[in-house]
Amino acid sequence: TLRHRFGGESFARPAPVCHQHGLQRAAVSECALMFLAGTLHGCSYADIIVHRLLAASIGADATYPDLVSKEKTADLCENINFRHTMAQRASRASNDLYCHILFTDKIVDEEGYVLRTRRNALTVLVPRYGIEGNVYFSEPGKEAEADVKYNEETLQLTVKGVTFAVFDRVVVQVSVEERMQTKRIKLQLICPTVEGVSVEPQPATPKALLMVGAAPAAMAIEPRPSAGTAPAATLALEEKGKKKKKNSKKSKKRASSASLESTQRKKLGVDKDA
Prior knowledge:
- It is built from 5 helices and 10 strands; from the N terminus they run ββααααββββββββα.
- By secondary structure, the chain is of the alpha+beta class.
- The strands form 3 sheets. A 5-stranded antiparallel sheet has the order 5-4-3-9-10.
């Protein structure tokens, strides 16, 4: 029995049994019930239409002409997609508004991670605030300078001898910039230091944050080792693991020998205390 409520509309009708294709029909009905059970909570209008079509296809509910019309369904899908796009834009605009309110008359230094490298900029994510923005090394829309080199094969950007790659940790300065009666979040590079590009950190910024090589333990990223070598920390962990394996093997041997000795004593009838 299918039981579902679509904004006041409900139905509870037993699915018909088809004896000619019993197993196939039963399998389809079971899959339909599993689909409905997984998508009933918090249904959108698109889910409602899908449920109605699915119920009509297995004979659990009656249909109507507009539901099975391709033209009507296409127009409905276009309207749903349009509303979905508008809802996404409204959500992003709301996030931007609250970020602008938060950083109005405020400058904050925070750590970020490189998500993407471009010919003249880096796309940086600031996890603490969920902000994603660009750090430009030249004016947007203009050609990159001679000391800005982009490697398309490795996706690395080199600026005045400093190389940036995806997932590299950086420290950026977050502020609000006003342009032509509009506001936008502005990210400026602090660390690693690039001559003529990096800005000075705020006086209240802790020194531990400015150490790019020492990321916090919660989000630390181990530096990439060079070819043929391994970091000292990795070697120490491997040695520690080997010692643990040796100790566990010795303890297992001792336990097995003790259990074997006790079983032999029991068979011979020897007292444990003796």
